[in-house]
## 1
Amino acid sequence: MNIHDLSARTGATGRHVRYLVAEGFMPSPRGGRSNAEYGEDHVAAILRYARLRDLGFPPAAIKLLLEAHEGAPFPVSPGITLVIDPELFGSGQPVAPLVARVHAILSDLLKELHHAEAHPGRDD
């Protein structure tokens, strides 16, 4: 799709698209300057950036999050840090199943830790 189609799909102006490319928030378009072609990866990048801005993240923080190739760490509680793949930011993936899975994992881990503290020296 060309920049006009991309703008129509995302609501981002051509100027904003060029800013996002120049600042590294999204990849350069395929093709030359006059034949620039954008794809679904560009749509996703624009929507991800917009979602993070809506959540109050400044551009510098968004850049750091997106550059975190190992994942972006978010401290949850002392001793617990949630690491999120930057590709998930603004992806629209349903949150409820993720929360349920994290809840189940933490419940199992903390139950095991509590059991180990209550019964030191036992390997059951």
## 2
Amino acid sequence: MDKMQHRADNTGSVSEASMASAFSKGGTMSGINEQFSKLIAADKSGSLTARVKGTLQKNRPQNQSVPSRGQNPDSSLSLSTRRELYERDFPVYKQPVEVGCFSLDSERRFFNDGRQMRYYVEPDRSPHFDLRDGYKDRFIKRDDSVKEKLDHMLRWILANRSKLSARGTTASSCDLDIDFVTWRGHLTKLLTAPYETREGWQLAVTRFRGTLYISEVETEAARRDQENRTERHEEMMYWGYKFEQYTCAGM
């Protein structure tokens, strides 16, 4: 398991980035949740051994030098945080394709279906939404001490391998025909690193049979911020969920 860190000081590179092996060939896999352990238990041949300071990068031959600061990011496996390197035409992205869904109820229980999906309903031009409604008497606050990480997504993968398996493999195979398994917010943190000047982050990355599993690791600063949230901050966070409720209709 590799760890990627970003200290939000914008000093020209990801200043606290590192990659450290959490397990090697024949070793144990500590810190991986139960579902992930099931997914990769059949394979013990992979090892991640590179340790790098200053850049986010994949394993690289030892005789290959770190790219210079003026080098184009496309020509290396590093991720520089120099903004000027990315000031170019916006890339072309393909339309996302949904491969499946799952639902979580009010108690965070997993269901391998779309029972919690809702339709978007465009509000009136001048809506009168009471975003405070229910906060004091009906709101069930999520337990922030429970770190779900990739648990629910991995559980869905275990139940739907046939939808993700590479061609020519069986549904029971561990091979997945995808490059990344992560939440979109994690990729947002990674891709906006050159422009983030306030909040740092840490991501844990495990590469297994060609697929990269990316999960966030809570930093000490994030933990302190969470513990020191004011009542006003908590209520403002609730407003976003309430707005979503107003603009979504039941099935």
## 3
Amino acid sequence: MFDVFVLGLTATAVSGLAAGAACHHGWLARAARKKRRIPAQWHLQARPLLLGSEQEVWHWLQRAFFDHHVLVKIPVIRFVSPRNEAEGQRSFELLKSVYCTFTVCAADGTVIGCLDVPGPQGLRASNRDLKRKLFDECGIAYAVVRDSNLPTLEDVRAAFLGEIDLSDDEEGAPAVLGQPPLAMPESEADDVATVPDTMRAADGATLVADAQHVDMTAMAAARSSLQAKLERNRKIRFTNFDPLSTGSGIVHDDGEHHFAVQWEDSFINPEEPQAPKGTKT
């Protein structure tokens, strides 16, 4: 008799547990559906795309790269792609939430370089180091700048483009950066004293030759060289305009931190760019 009672009690308990588990599973499913359901009203409001400090850097970049496009907060996976599909998913998981404050690209959409502006809480050291290594391998320039300590327009163009600056040697007539060179009639050019080219390396170093007068042929060649360099995308290493390694702007994190999601398919299986109409493929 006792065994029958125990058996019945056990069966009741098992049935209760099963019913409870089923109810819990159903509750979780309903909660998940409710979470995915589009709300009847969004409790959100519009906000500026850029902070005040970022806006200042944005306007500065537009002056520096007057002949390029300055894009805002573009995810990294939009302009890099895996070399092989086997590594695509792993790379996507690491990069899916990584973006740069500003991305500079040419008229054809080719990315020239990226800049980050640390926010109020700083820039994660792991985030910065990841982008520094990634962009170095991809041949994309990278820099970290602050609105309170911006480099010159000349320096940032040199770091991203490796260009030559042609400027007047007269006192009180500094080089005008951020504007295309003005054409000069040949009849007036003979009376103007010109100066040698100033080479700006990727690290911002300046190599200046001895001042001398050059003829129109040399001047035209220098201008041609400048235009060629503007079109060339050099492999530039990380430009340390803002040495975070010695400052308080770094937010250190542990090795388990993951950069957490967008556009998985276009990253792992990117579409080939379409050729312009009228061209043969």
